[in-house]
Every structure is written in structure tokens, then in C-alpha cells.
Design brief:
Bound molecules: phosphoenolpyruvate, magnesium ion
CATH class of the largest domain: Alpha Beta
Number of domains: 3
Shape: globular
Radius of gyration: 25 Å
Strand content: 5-15%
Strand order of the largest sheet: 1-8-7-3-4-5-6-2
């Protein structure tokens, strides 16, 4: 048995045979050509064929993993048409009189290197995308098409790395898990894997790649990030048991659908779900969440190549509200900045982005962006039970400015004769220690608080949430954090506001009792954790 470890991207266990993903290597030779114009014509035809393939992949992805995840292939289609990319290819053909394959390959290397050298993790991940589209064009030039992974029996796909298009083309019914030697948890491949519910490990390393062979039996533990090649009997039995226990747990949790979130002594709490896009609503409904406690609206901006218009936003918010059929939907206004960078915002590079120009700070400085979003939100409010919350609040004055803009937007809509709901709840995220400490001053101005423990932890413990080097200093149960939450809960209730938690800590069932004792009214978690938290609530007895 040989053991390797990487990062578990989706927690589950799988045992089975390995299939090493073989990408058809397109070795590109540099050839001299006499007619650069003819080369450019070949290039145009190959690009058209590549775009047609991408359209097919997009349609497949749309059906299988939803619009937000399929969009990467729309981006690929746009990248194929990118002026800089094409100018580079054509200029290499013209100036060096070389074949199109070579010009595409050289351009791909240059662009991939440029993306990889950027500071921003999101842009670094685009390096794989440019290579992916270039390989597709090269394959079309050679009239080869591209390989899709596949096998007749269910297998654990092992690869160097998987491009997003390769991941989505995997026939899910035949894939038990996948393990890659490289790749970042920020990449679209990792995101797609989570959404496809495939147990996955990334970053298992070069040694793993050298050791893994087709047909070898392996066990993958997506929880711990371990992969065992040719596992010994003890490991195999242990993981089989873990898998069985997993299945049994999932089955039992299904029985909690339709049941109340109530403790043994009768205390009730709401359990809502967090989503990043319209296409996650299916998971919210399938897991029986009572509502949406956090819709991270910035994903609309991240997935777009320009500011989403009022109409585009209105359509997305309306769809969420209508799909939730009268259940509460809390949409958070734009939280761009820090780890979530968007090119077209043209934000300056910062030394300390987490402490920088982000979220509400951008909205209050560039109110035209904020107003567009608020107009779309209020227009959508006529179609369901909307709550709006504002991120990164640190002061009363920010909240006063927000409320003034909100009132102006409502006034505009009224003057234009546009319908909106009178019952939109307004809330703020408690994700800075400042907001928690002055929660007695903020509570009278809002309907609710929602504690963002991800940021509250980073700011309270002074540990950048993006920095792996300080992870060892992060104690998510730190007394300071719990005291800030408790203080916020007391102040919310003293002023008639309700309080929820929407950071990752909300799903930590070792704290469910603590939160219930604090009087937390709502916990908002990833859809797949709703039933697990319901189970923890139903086992809690506050009378003891
Ligand atoms: C948080 O900070 O806890 C939160 C929910 O927001 P995000 O993770 O999007 O910053
Ligand atoms: Mg946050």
C-alpha cells in the first residue's frame, strides 16, 4: 500500500479501480509556411470548430451543473475571440511564417505564464483556461477533436490536472472519484467537482502521479484528502466502514425532511441555506431549507465580464424569490474586494486587501453601482419574501448612509410607478468586531443581524483567511468570537431585531447547543448541511 495526500475538495469516500486520465498529447512542431494567409484561414476554421465544441459542452454543463458553472465555457468561447489572444497568434504567423499550431501553442504558453504570474488567485486559475482553449484549437487544426474521459466500469479518475471542460465531460455515472496531482482549490475544476458531488482530492503531488497506474485498486478519502493505492486489508475495511457509515448517515438524515427544527425541550430555530447563484436553488429545496439566509450576490458580478445591468440582476433575484415560493430570501448586497476581485471594477492593488476597499465601502463610494443593485432588489421584492443585508459594516454612519440611499431608491421607484414590497427586511452582517461591539447602537436601525463568522474570525483573531501560514493560529471557537456573537444576540433582542449566523461556523454542530443557548434565531448553512444541523438541533435539550 502507498499513501498520498492532497486537499479534499468534496468530502466522501470511494473505493475502486483507477483510470489514469490520458490526454491526447498534441506535440506541436514548428513548421515554416509560405502562405501565412492560408494558415490564418486554417486557424479561422479551427476556431469555429472549437467554438462549436464548446457550445456543445456548455449545453451539457448547463443541464448537469447549472448556469453559473456552465458559464466557464461561455468564457472559453469569449476567450477564443479575444483580440489580444488572436492578434498574438496572427502576428506570430505573419512575422515568423510559421504554422498555426505553433503560433497557437506559443501564444498559449505566453498567456498562461502571464496569468500564472499574477498575484490574484482567480487570475492565476485562468492560466489553465487559456491552455485548455488553445489545446482545443490545436486539436481542431489537426482535425483530432479532444478526448473525453470515460470507461465502462466505475473508476477513480487520476490525472495530472483536469481542465474545466475535461471535468464536466466526465460521465458522472462512471466516475467514483477523482484525484489530481496539481490544481488549486480556487480553480473552476474544484468548484465544478463540488457541485457535481464527486469525491475529489486535488494536489496529491508528482510522486502520486508517478506511482499511480491504470487498473490498480485504490481508496479515496475526500474528508482527509488521503488516497491509498493498493490499500492493505485494514485500510480497505476501515474505509469501507466509513463509506457505509456515511451512506447510513445520509439515509437517516433524509428522514428528517419535513420535520421541525425543534429541540427536545421545544425551542425552535430556523435553518436556512447559503447560495452563490440561482442554480443552487435546487439543492436548497432538495435539502428542505426553510429559506435562503445568504445569497452571495457578488457571484453575479464575478461571473460577468461587465457590470450586470439592473435587468439582469432583477431577473436573477426574481427567479430566486419565485422559486422559493414565499419562503424568506436574504440577498446580500455586493461584497466585492479582498479575495473576490473583479477586473472591470478596476480596483487598485492593495497591500492588505482584507482590510481594504471592499464590500459596502465600494458601494458607498460608487453609489451608482449600489443604486442599480438596490433598484433591482426592490423591483424583485414584489415577487416574494425579500430581506436585504449589507456586508462589512463598522459604523452607525455607514448604516445611516445606506438607509438614506435605500429611501431615495424607493422614492424613485414610487415616482416611476414601479411596484415593490413594503415588507422588505433590512439587516446587516456582523462580521467586524466593531459592528459586534456597537451592536447596541446598530440594532435599533435594522430588522436583523446575520453574523459572518468567516470574516469575524479573521478580524477578531487578526488572521488573514486567505493565508495558509496563519491557519494554525485560527481557533474558530475562540472565546472572543463567541462573546462577540453573544453580545450581538443580546443587543439584537433588546431592540426587537432577530439574529442569525451565516458564516461556516453555523454548520459546526459542536456549537449548535451554544448558539441555541445564546438565543440565535436562525442558522444559515450550505444546502448539504441543513439536515445535519436539523439533526443536531433535534438532539439538543436546553432544559438540562
Ligand atoms: C462571512 O464572512 O462569514 C460570510 C458569510 O461572508 P463571506 O464568506 O462571503 O465573506
Ligand atoms: Mg464575509
Amino acid at each position: 500500500m502507498t499513501t498520498f495526500s492532497g486537499k479534499g475538495v468534496y468530502g466522501a469516500v470511494a473505493l475502486g479501480k483507477v483510470s489514469v486520465f490520458k490526454r491526447r498529447e498534441t506535440t506541436v512542431k514548428m513548421l515554416h509556411v509560405d502562405d501565412p494567409e492560408a494558415e490564418k484561414a486554417r486557424l479561422a476554421a479551427a476556431k469555429a470548430a472549437a467554438a462549436a465544441q464548446l457550445q456543445e459542452i456548455y449545453d451539457k454543463a448547463l443541464k448537469e451543473v447549472g448556469e453559473a458553472n456552465a458559464q466557464i465555457f461561455e468564457i472559453h468561447m469569449m476567450m477564443i475571440e479575444d483580440d489580444d489572444y488572436n492578434e498574438s497568434i496572427e502576428s506570430i504567423i505573419d512575422t515568423q511564417s510559421v504554422n498555426a499550431e505553433y503560433a497557437v501553442s506559443l501564444t498559449a504558453d505566453n498567456f498562461a505564464e502571464m496569468f500564472a504570474s499574477m498575484d490574484d488567485a482567480y487570475m492565476q486559475a485562468r492560466s489553465a483556461d487559456v491552455k485548455d482553449i488553445s489545446n482545443r484549437i490545436i486539436a481542431c487544426l489537426s482535425d483530432e477533436g479532444t478526448q473525453t474521459a470515460g470507461s465502462d466500469e466505475k473508476v477513480i479518475i487520476c490525472a495530472d490536472d483536469l481542465a474545466p471542460s475535461e471535468t464536466v465531460l466526465l460521465d458522472k455515472d462512471k466516475v467514483l472519484a477523482f484525484v489530481t496531482a496539481h490544481g488549486s482549490s480556487n480553480s473552476h475544476t474544484a468548484i465544478l467537482a463540488r457541485n457535481m458531488n464527486i469525491p475529489a482530492i486535488i494536489g496529491a503531488g508528482n510522486a502520486f502521479l508517478a506511482a499511480v497506474k491504470d487498473g490498480v485498486f485504490a481508496a479515496v478519502d475526500g474528508y482527509t484528502g488521503e488516497i491509498f493505492l493498493d490499500p492493505d486489508d485494514e485500510t480497505r475495511t476501515r474505509l469501507e466502514q466509513k463509506q457505509k457509515a456515511d451512506e447510513e448517515k445520509k439515509r437517516l438524515l433524509q428522514e428528517l425532511k419535513g420535520k421541525e427544527n425543534v429541540t427536545l425541550d421545544g425551542t425552535k430555530i430556523k435553518i436556512f441555506a447559503n447560495i452563490g447563484g440561482v442554480d443552487h436553488i435546487g439543492a436548497v429545496l432538495a435539502n428542505d431549507a426553510g429559506g435562503i439566509g445568504l445569497f452571495r450576490s457578488e457571484f453575479l458580478y464575478l461571473e460577468s465580464s461587465d457590470y450586470p445591468t439592473e435587468e439582469q440582476q432583477f431577473a436573477a433575484y426574481k427567479k430566486v424569490l419565485e422559486s422559493m415560493a414565499g419562503k424568506k430570501v436574504i440577498i446580500r448586497t455586493l461584497d466585492i474586494g479582498a479575495d473576490k476581485q473583479v477586473d472591470y471594477f478596476n480596483l487598485a492593488k492593495e497591500e492588505n486587501p482584507a482590510l481594504g476597499f471592499r464590500a459596502i465601502r465600494i458601494c458607498l463610494t460608487r453609489p451608482e453601482i449600489f443604486r442599480t443593485q438596490l433598484r433591482a432588489l426592490y423591483r424583485a421584492s414584489a415577487f416574494g419574501e425579500l430581506g436585504i443585508m449589507f456586508p462589512m459594516i463598522t459604523s452607525v454612519s455607514e448604516l445611516e448612509q445606506i438607509k438614506q440611499i435605500v429611501n431615495e431608491v424607493k422614492g424613485e421607484l414610487t415616482a416611476e410607478g414601479i411596484a415593490f414590497s413594503d415588507n422588505v427586511e433590512l439587516g446587516i452582517m456582523i462580521e467586524t468586531p466593531a459592528a459586534a461591539v456597537i451592536s447596541d447602537r446598530l440594532a435599533p436601525l435594522v430588522d436583523f443581524f446575520s453574523v459572518g463568522t468567516n470574516d469575524l474570525t479573521q478580524y477578531t483573531l487578526a488572521c488573514d483567511r486567505q493565508n495558509a501560514a496563519v491557519e494554525q493560529f485560527v481557533d474558530t471557537h475562540h472565546e472572543a468570537i463567541l462573546r462577540l456573537i453573544e453580545m450581538s444576540a443580546k443587543n439584537a433582542h433588546a431592540h426587537g431585531a432577530w439574529i442569525g449566523i451565516c458564516g461556516e461556523l453555523a454548520a459546526d454542530t459542536t456549537l449548535t447547543e451554544t448558539f441555541l443557548r445564546m438565543g440565535i434565531d436562525e442558522l444559515s448553512v450550505s444546502p448539504s448541511f441543513v439536515l445535519k444541523v436539523r439533526d443536531a438541533v433535534r438532539r439538543t435539550d436546553l432544559s438540562r
